[in-house]
Design goal:
This protein is α+β, with helices and mostly antiparallel strands and 542 residues long. Among the domains are: 30-114, no CATH class; 130-205, no CATH class; 316-450, no CATH class. It has helices at 30-48, 130-139, 143-149, 152-164, 172-184, 198-205, 219-228, 243-253, 256-265, 273-285, 290-295, 304-310, 314-328, 365-370, 387-393, 427-431, 433-447, 454-475, 483-490, 512-519, and strands at residues 60-61, 70-76, 82-88, 99-100, 236-241, 335-340, 343-348, 353-358, 376-378, 398-400, 411-412, 420-422, 494-499, 503-508, 526-529, 535-541. The strands form four sheets. It has a seven-stranded mixed sheet with strand order 8-7-6-9-10-12-11, sandwiched between helices. A five-stranded mixed sheet has the order 5-13-14-16-15. Helix 8 (243-253) packs across helix 18 (454-475) and helix 18 (454-475) packs across helix 19. The two termini are 46 Å apart.
Length: 542
């Protein structure tokens, strides 16, 4: 690299992260957003360091990371064509002071005109840090809600990862949310003033025996993600079921996909994300060998040990999924409850999007409140003994066809088909009870009939959400959407999958199903799929 001339800035390494706030879609060209940011950087940097680029004085260098939070806006250009504007958000930027460097430090023979900005598009340990996920949730105002949903063991893991984990340090709002949740649970005394620094948080929790050491996630672990998911090696083509690949887009749009890497990194299993992908594929494929192709593995090993070790991380993923569904729930519509696998499955009635699985009825209440406290339909199924009483005593307006136990505060409705209510669920909800019960039964038989462990339940929720989003996107204008419909219609859809160094390309046969998917926007590229080593998942027809 040659010596810089007056007014010139040389960037040695550039990492661009695009954060979406609200909405599900990245648009037709997600990587184009990164290119736009990179093209705008020279002008942004020139404005930020204008005082040091006047051509006077010695050369200066910044050796510490420079973080610019760039706000993307739109304006009308000439002829009414939309143009993109970028502005640096000074409140969220970190810009160290430059220091003088001797001119002889700049060595090399290449021309500066040949110097290119390197944009890192692969998996990084910083981007996959739990702290990064928490920061994004804090920006959306959802971090406190997520932390409140986590069981004690998972919160301890998250706290350890934030205090001692590698990579990015937590920002003030993340530290404050963690401290507030720890105090809410009574683990520490209520702080006399808001906790804003990592040192203060460490001081508060240093005596807690509950907080274990964070699993170390090194750059070698990140490389193992790439190596594990590099099989099949080179440019290879496989024939397999298309359905698991169709799940990825909806998971990306709901924010679930972005949470997989950070969640597994919190328990030191970042390098085993392909096993999580295999578990997800098996929820819709059964024991098919195609699950290995989806996970980019030669074969799928027994997942028992992985299921046990990943357990503490799964509530983070379940919470991200639940918050996404709760955000979109209309309180006018009811929530549905069925007994599944010794616990309770909570489902959004409109699109049969799963909200959560809990062991007890009282654990459903935070989700019910996040959905706007709607009416609840409790369907005849293997319910925990105290389910109806706990819901009724919490003030949940409900209707059920389950005969209450003695002492349960429910009233029978005067109608031929026996129904009981608590509170005022509304006449429309009561009238539509048979339809809700039938649709929920179809969902549980299709995706939740077999008892399983926490991994199977969590991936079942993710699969059901993706299938529900597909059905809603493709067919809501012509029929009542149902996740089981998407499962049935795409179960035998075959695909040709080509693995390259940069992408995993899925080619679907032309026909009605491809046309539906294309028209519904379900075949857009999905960048940075963690179990594919950060490669982009693309779709085509032919």
């Amino acid at each position: 690299m040659s010596a810089p001339i007056a007014g010139e800035t040389i960037v040695r390494n550039c990492v661009v992260r695009v954060v979406r706030r609200g909405g599900w879609s990245w648009g037709p060209d997600p990587r184009g957003i990164v290119r736009l940011v990179v093209d705008a950087l020279p002008e942004l940097l020139a404005g930020q360091f204008a005082d040091h680029l006047d051509g006077e004085g010695p050369d200066v260098e910044i050796s510490e990371p420079v973080r610019l939070s760039v706000v993307w806006g739109r304006s009308r250009g000439s002829g009414g064509v939309p143009s993109v504007e970028f502005a640096v958000d000074p409140g969220a930027s970190v810009v160290p002071e430059p220091r003088e460097v001797a001119r002889e430090e700049w060595t090399g023979s290449s021309s500066t005109s040949d110097t290119q900005v390197a944009v890192r598009a692969s998996v990084s340990d910083t981007a996959l840090s739990p702290v990064t996920l928490f920061g994004e949730l804090a920006e959306r105002g959802e971090l406190a809600a997520l932390l409140a949903l986590l069981p004690d063991e998972t919160l301890r893991v998250c706290l350890a990862a934030s205090l001692d984990g590698p990579g990015e340090r937590p920002r003030g709002e993340v530290i404050g949310a963690l401290a507030a949740e720890v105090a809410r649970r009574g683990w520490i005394p209520e702080p006399s003033s808001p906790v804003a620094t990592l040192v203060e948080l460490r001081e508060l929790v240093r005596s807690l025996p509950r907080v274990a050491s964070a699993p170390h996630v090194s750059s070698a672990d990140v490389e193992r993600v790439v190596q594990t998911s590099a099989s099949p090696a080179g440019e290879t083509t496989r024939e397999c079921a298309a359905l698991p690949f169709l799940l990825v887009g909806p998971l990306a749009r709901t924010g679930y996909l972005d949470a997989v890497g950070p969640a597994l990194a919190s328990v030191g299993l970042l390098h085993q994300t392909p096993l999580f992908a295999a578990a997800l594929a098996r929820r819709v494929l059964g024991g098919s060998a195609d699950a290995a192709v989806f996970a980019c593995l030669d074969s799928v090993p027994d997942l028992g040990d992985f299921a046990r070790r990943v357990g503490p991380a799964l509530p983070v993923l379940d919470g991200v999924l639940a918050l996404a569904v709760c955000r979109g729930h209309d309180p006018v519509d009811p929530l549905l409850v069925a007994g599944v696998d010794g616990g309770l499955l909570l489902v959004d009635a409109q699109g049969l999007f799963p909200v959560a699985w809990t062991a007890r009825a009282v654990d459903l209440l935070p989700y019910w409140e996040a959905c706007g406290r709607p009416a609840v339909v409790v369907c005849d199924s293997p319910l925990p003994t105290s389910c109806l009483r706990e819901l009724a005593e919490a003030g949940v307006p409900l209707v059920t066809d389950v005969r209450p136990l003695r002492g349960d505060p429910l009233t029978r409705l005067p109608r031929p088909a026996p129904l009981w209510v608590s509170g005022a669920p509304g006449s429309r909800v009561v009238a539509e009870f048979p339809r809700h019960a039938e649709r929920l039964d179809e969902l549980t038989r299709a995706l939740f009939a077999r008892p399983g462990d926490a991994l199977e339940r969590g991936t079942g929720l993710a699969a059901a959400l993706s299938l529900g989003v597909l059905a809603w996107t493709l067919w809501r204008e012509t029929e009542t959407p149902h996740p089981a419909t998407a499962l049935t219609r795409f179960a035998d859809l075959e695909a040709t999958v080509r693995f390259t160094d940069e992408a995993v390309r899925v080619r679907l046969p032309l026909g009605r199903r491809h046309a539906d998917l294309l028209r519904g926007g379900a075949l857009v590229d999905v960048p940075d799929v963690v179990w594919l080593g950060g490669r982009t998942l693309t779709f085509s027809g032919g």
